[in-house]
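Work Package 4 report. The design task specified in the project plan requires that, given a folded chain encoded as structure tokens, an amino acid be chosen for each position. We show below one input record used in the internal validation round.
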């Protein structure tokens, strides 16, 4: 039983197939098949039930999975412990983050970071979640911050929930209704952003599942553009909580609670390579990110989306 065999096994489980696992691990599909076959031979058991559809875990595979995950975590911890014994010198920190994280979370975090690590050169690159993951996997970034990032090659730590919240200008007539039903919102002027993104899909799906057609009055490219339109009373928008901290605190915007719909949950995750020890520079940033995630919450109540609340 070898490390790359366990990593490949978890990649097949995560991505639901040998071909997708090969793409994620940057190896050929025959290499993936060979590693799984060698692992099965070493264990004397079949790990996947292969058919026309995607392979599914056998009983042996289900039994192996938690132990494989634990072994990879233990190896990462061992590498980190050895790495921390090596002499450390101030160097560089490469960060990959989603645009919203770069805009709304990292400026304050990096201000504190640079105050304590003035000799460290910080390189910050932005991208969508998949681009952030790729930069970390390819060794182009030491640490990544985005949403819902999971892969056998990285350690993932969830900082906090970052839900999409329906917000409007406090002076907008419709914003006086702070608790409404989804059917009422269908006719409200709504502003959507970044067509095809997960945020766009989540907010549109909320109406689609209820058989409703939202009244989209504007479509823009970025979160910040959508927020500015809301501030000018042009409509309402589902925006990530991370982008609304100051506006909700200062009551430049107000949240509207949808009493009969499921919440639009999203996780804000930090990732780092499983195979490469986390340098002190990255560990310091991770500590500051944890603190910022605990404190960067709006002071007025965010919408709770309580399904089945009083009408």
């Amino acid at each position: 039983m070898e490390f790359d065999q366990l990593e490949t096994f978890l990649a097949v489980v995560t991505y639901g197939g040998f071909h997708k696992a090969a793409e994620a691990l940057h190896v050929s599909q025959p290499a993936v098949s060979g590693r799984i076959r060698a692992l099965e031979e070493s264990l004397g058991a079949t790990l996947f039930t292969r058919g026309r559809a995607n392979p599914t875990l056998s009983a042996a595979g289900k039994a192996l999975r938690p132990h494989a995950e634990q072994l990879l975590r233990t190896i990462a911890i061992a590498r980190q412990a050895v790495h921390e014994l090596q002499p450390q010198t101030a160097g560089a920190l490469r960060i990959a983050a989603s645009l919203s994280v770069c805009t709304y979370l990292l400026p304050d975090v990096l201000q504190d970071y640079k105050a304590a690590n003035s000799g460290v050169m910080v390189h910050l690159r932005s991208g969508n979640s998949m681009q952030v993951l790729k930069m970390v996997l390819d060794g182009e970034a030491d640490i990544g911050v985005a949403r819902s990032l999971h892969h056998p090659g990285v350690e993932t730590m969830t900082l906090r929930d970052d839900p999409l919240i329906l917000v409007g200008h406090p002076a907008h007539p419709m914003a006086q209704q702070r608790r409404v039903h989804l059917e009422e919102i269908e006719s409200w002027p709504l502003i959507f952003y970044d067509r095809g993104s997960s945020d766009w899909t989540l907010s549109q799906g909320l109406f689609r599942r209820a058989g409703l057609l939202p009244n989209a009055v504007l479509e823009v490219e970025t979160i910040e553009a959508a927020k500015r339109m809301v501030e000018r009373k042009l409509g309402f928008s589902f925006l990530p909580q991370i982008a609304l901290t100051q506006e909700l605190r200062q009551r430049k915007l107000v949240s509207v609670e949808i009493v009969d719909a499921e919440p639009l949950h999203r996780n804000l995750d930090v990732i780092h390579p499983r195979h490469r020890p986390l340098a002190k520079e990255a560990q310091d940033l991770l500590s500051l990110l944890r603190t910022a995630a605990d404190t960067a919450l709006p002071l007025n109540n965010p919408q709770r989306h309580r399904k089945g609340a009083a009408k």
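The longest helix spans residues 59-83. Validation will be extended to a larger panel in the next phase.
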